[in-house]
Design brief:
The chain contains 2 helices and 10 strands. It is of the alpha+beta class. The strands form 2 sheets. Strands 1-3-9-5-6 form a 5-stranded mixed beta sheet, with no helix packed on it. The N and C termini lie far apart (107 Å).
Length: 183
């Protein structure tokens, strides 16, 4: 029985990250960014870090809202053997919106990732980005995560007077064409 408990404890310690933090990034206003630096200790197996960044999008009127993610890593030695990014909508039931894996990136030698933007995001919802990673060495390190709020303005909707003028102009063109045909 003691051997089973020791085995379960050993396996659980391998899956548990050395560093796990939760960061409140606040409500992101459109066309702004917010950054957070994270330092993680040395690790001997499992994830070196597994961090969660909570945020929402500030309502700035009609438009299509999105978020971009940038990651700049500084492992103490070597590079990253894997980094995973998860963007989730955490309003109501948790929903994964987008997942990126380190193996999807062509060059990890720079330890930099500028993620694509994801949208549309609902301003009434709350979101989180989870970042998990392991470094090539057991020396620890740090990284920075930047979230960039973006907004595309919607095309203006014409006023009813604009439609009335358009239809009146079409009517005049039709009337003049008919008049020419009769002469």
């Amino acid at each position: 029985m003691k051997q089973k408990i020791a085995l379960v404890t050993a396996l659980a310690s391998l899956a548990t990250p050395v560093w796990a933090g939760t960061f409140a990034m606040g409500a992101l206003a459109p066309f702004t960014s917010v950054s957070q630096s994270v330092t993680y200790p040395a690790v001997t197996g499992g994830y070196a870090f597994d961090d969660t960044f909570n945020f929402s999008i500030a309502d700035d009127g009609p438009g299509i809202y999105s978020v971009g993610i940038e990651f700049q890593g500084y492992p103490a030695a070597g590079g990253y053997s894997s980094v995973e990014f998860y963007l989730r909508d955490v309003t109501g039931s948790e929903t994964d919106l987008l997942t990126w894996y380190g193996s999807d990136f062509p060059d990890w030698s720079t330890n930099f990732f500028s993620g694509q933007s994801y949208g549309p995001l609902d301003v009434s919802h709350s979101y989180q980005v989870e970042v998990r990673g392991t470094s090539d060495s057991n020396a620890g390190g740090n990284y920075g995560l930047t979230l960039i709020a973006e907004k595309d303005n919607l095309a203006p909707v014409p006023e009813p007077e604009t439609y009335a003028m358009f239809l009146a102009g079409l009517g005049l063109l039709g009337w003049s064409a008919r008049r020419r045909k009769q002469n």
